[in-house]
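Lab meeting, item 3. Inverse folding demo.
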């Protein structure tokens, strides 16, 4: 980054902010010991993004506690996904990551009960037309996004990681069965490392929007670096990929 001309920092800062990577760029500069050597104006943007990401992480932790309280009597697993999972499990992509919502996964058989509990605790649907409701409930892998009426936070409740109408089908019961409970009395879990990595790949390659595609690639890079040192990781990853029918996703 020290080789970047001052005139090019404007473009870099705007691109990194659009990709959701500005705070992560700041962390990388600090890791390399070059943060104090950056141009003052650029440094101000990076520090601001870092403060914003830390504040969002605190907000996400509070929101996850609210979700846990709302679903405490569900009687079914509640699995955190994506950014919320990285944050609560302490995985490397959590650093500098920003949040637009919280994603959870529950068994499809518990979906109606989960929705009722969340509505009771103040979440409301954001897609009210009959078409949108049918679109999500019959064809997708999640409920219509829910927004809390007081806090304004957004929650996505999934029952799978791919839509009902997708060509590929992923056995969600296998994801849930292999999930890992978070330490402490949280009542929440996260996907196993191999499944977490595969879900990130699925989200990148099957998502209809690519506005944060570079951020997703960065997440994958960080997870691979973190997980690859575990015993037999690559063998377990390829075996799990075959079990879930996601060979093409891993190949890409």
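The presenter then showed the designed sequence:
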């Amino acid at each position: 980054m020290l080789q970047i001309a001052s005139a090019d920092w404007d473009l870099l800062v705007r691109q990194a902010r659009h990709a959701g990577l500005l705070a992560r760029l700041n962390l990388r500069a600090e890791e390399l010991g070059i943060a104090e050597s950056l141009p003052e104006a650029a440094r101000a943007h990076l520090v601001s993004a870092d403060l914003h990401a830390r504040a969002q992480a605190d907000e996400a932790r509070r929101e996850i506690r609210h979700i846990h309280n709302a679903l405490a009597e569900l009687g079914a697993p509640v699995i955190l996904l994506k950014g919320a999972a990285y944050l609560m499990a302490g995985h490397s992509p959590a650093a500098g990551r920003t949040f637009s919502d919280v994603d959870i996964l529950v068994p499809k058989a518990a979906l109606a009960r989960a929705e009722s509990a969340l509505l009771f605790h103040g979440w409301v649907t954001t897609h009210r037309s009959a078409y949108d409701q049918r679109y999500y409930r019959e064809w997708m892998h999640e409920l219509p996004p829910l927004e809390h009426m007081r806090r304004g936070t957004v929650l996505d409740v999934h029952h799978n990681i791919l839509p009902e109408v997708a060509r590929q089908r992923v056995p969600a019961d296998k994801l849930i069965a292999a999930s890992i409970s978070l330490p402490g009395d949280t009542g929440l879990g996260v996907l196993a490392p191999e499944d977490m990595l595969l879900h990130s790949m699925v989200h990148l390659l099957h998502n209809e929007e690519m506005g944060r595609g570079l951020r997703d690639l960065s997440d994958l890079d960080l997870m691979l670096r973190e997980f690859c040192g575990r015993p037999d990781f690559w063998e377990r990853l390829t075996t799990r990929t075959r079990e879930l029918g996601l060979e093409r996703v891993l190949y890409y």
